[in-house]
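Hello Y.,

Per our agreement to keep a running log of every chain we model this quarter, I'm adding this entry. I've kept the format consistent with earlier entries: sequence first, then predicted structure.
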Amino acid sequence: MRQLDSEDVDQKNLVMAYVQLGAVDVAFSIMQQSLEKDEKAWVDHWDFASAWAAENQSLRVDPRFGELAERIGMVDYWKQYGYPDSCRAGSDSPIVCS
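Predicted structure for the entry above:
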């Protein structure tokens, strides 16, 4: 999938596909690069709610997920309205999920 022409397929639209294929490092790399170019990239290109699907557990249990959630403002939201199911505030990471 990394070899696809970016004019045909935007890599940031393939984030969850990478996660489901077990390429979590690639997914996080794409997300970080996307946010460096556009801090609101996650709004238009990622289905953030799908992180809680069973097949995407590897994404949300990764410590980088908490850092990502904090960067896009989700941790502040969760502090105010409550953490998602199976997640809590962390000591070494902004959020810890199982």
